[in-house]
Amino acid sequence: MAHPKHTEQPQEPLSQEESPLFRLPPEIRLIIYKDIFVAPTTIHLSWVHGCYCRFRSFLCKLPEEHQYEKTRSGDLCDKCREDHFKCHPRQKPPNKNAIKRRTYIPPRQRQTRVMNMLRSCKRVYYETIDMLYQQNSFYIKHPYTLTELCKYMPKERLSSFRTLSLEFLPENRSVYLSRYECLPLPGWSVIARALKKLDGLEFLCLIMRPYQDQGNEIQAVEKLIQKAKAQKYFAVAPRLLWAATSDIWGTRKKSVRGCPLHGIHGTESQCSRYYGF
């Protein structure tokens, strides 16, 4: 059934001098800006390369206690079953035969997102753009999103990031790509160069999802990160989090090391001792 046509009355934009927003004191505007531009939880950034945008953002759906990148370091065991895969709004439904119907969104409602507000007024942009990147926590699920972000985003905006969690798989690319729609998986040197551009970071968490032979992967990645730190690729010492991943059948792989959350084996992980987390 076709949607009824919506008729909207055209509105003339107000000048900055006439805008009620800019008549308010700067302190009041700051409160309003924080309510709009500072998210209540982590913001996910994802590469989509759509017709109208290359990236999209969406809020994290996990409760705070399951966002391990904020509080943990080292290895997680098979009991740590929560990850951010379900946060994506385009996740596949449990029933593959289910038909997902799109909800009609009026044109005016489509224009109420944060980025559209930034585009609407230069003064709003300059008063809020630093707040958007400095006071929010960002999570990138695939390293290709990070490398593409560094291609399209200006240097001054990249320097505004303060909190970032980046997830990637050191080995076994076929399993990783099957879950993330066959996006290219950049090499470590490309990822490190991209992280170097985020020179304003105050918190960096690298989430590794090893598939098998975890001990060898830990040693290999430790050497790479140690070399990158020596070459000053990171603005801040990264926190490492090793999380059990799923294989192609959806079975969780059990971590063989000590889990800082559940205390499996009762030992502290090698990464925690090495980096002093």
Describe the sheet with the most strands.
7 strands, mixed
Whole-number mean pLDDT: 71
Gyration radius, to the nearest Å? 21 Å
Q: What is the number of E strands?
A: 7
Quaternary state of this entry equals: single chain
InterPro entries: DUF7730
Protein name: DUF7730 domain-containing protein
Domain DUF7730: 15-224
Q: Could you describe the 3D structure shown?
A:
- With 277 residues, the chain is of the alpha/beta class.
- It has one domain (27-92, 105-242).
- Helices cover 34% and strands 12% of the residues.
- It has eleven helices and seven strands.
- It has helices at residues 20-23, 26-37, 107-110, 114-120, 122-134, 143-152, 155-158, 173-179, 188-197, 214-230, 270-275; strands at residues 43-47, 55-59, 74-75, 137-140, 163-168, 203-208, 239-242.
- It has a seven-stranded mixed β-sheet with strand order 2-1-4-5-6-7-3.
- Helix 4 runs antiparallel to helix 5 and helix 6 crosses helix 9 (188-197).
- The radius of gyration is 21 Å and the shape is elongated.
- Residues 93-105, 108-112, 171-180, 246-258 and 260-277 have low confidence and may be disordered.
- Residues 15-224 form the DUF7730 domain.
- This is DUF7730 domain-containing protein.
- InterPro entries: DUF7730 (IPR056632).
